Amino acid sequence: TFDGxxxxxxxxxxxxxxxxxxxxxxxxxFSDLSVLDNVIIGMHTRTKTGVLDALxxxxxxxxxxxxxxxxAETLLKLGSGGLFEQRYRSAGTLAQADRRRxxxxxxxxxxxxxxxxDEPSVGMDDTExxxxxxxxxxLRAQNPELSVVLIxxxxxxxxxxxxxxxCIDYGSKIAEGDFAAVRADSRVQEAYLGKAVAHA
Length: 200
Prior knowledge:
It is a single chain. By secondary structure, this protein is of the alpha/beta class. The protein has a single domain, classed as 3-Layer(aba) Sandwich (Rossmann fold), CATH 3.40.50.300. It contains ten helices and five strands. The chain has a three-stranded parallel beta sheet with strand order 1-2-3. Helix 2 (35-41) crosses helix 4 (58-78), helix 2 runs parallel beside helix 5 (96-108) and helix 4 (58-78) packs across helix 5 (96-108). It is globular. The mean pLDDT is 89.
């Protein structure tokens, strides 16, 4: 359940309407569109004007689009990768780390209450991962009402968000608590860190 509503069997677009946004492990950007347009697309559930408004109420449509552009540019300025300066580039030309940042910006464009990040550091080196972690920490500080759930295998990323960690092994939760307690759990050590660590 989310916000008191059962969402397990509901289509994904209803989750977005309710305030859930997510990124995926593999990139799902519109590669031929600009960085800016990719973020604006993320606002589609929060806009009021459509094609008919563009024809019959062009003033309202233009004002809403201008507001969307302004909001998208603000979101692109939040991250550490210089996406704002690349806002007119095709998304498909971005480096991997910038693609991940763009996906997060697009998810935030829907004004979510809950942000799900599926292995956001995949394909990044240590420097890029550290920058991403700093971005997420800053995002949480600026939006304390936003809940963030990370699905992540990189222990450096998990350790940066130590307050509540759950460890899943073959679909079953085997440990839950703060990072230190979960890391010390013998089942977690055997499943993810190896038996040698458990006996070290």
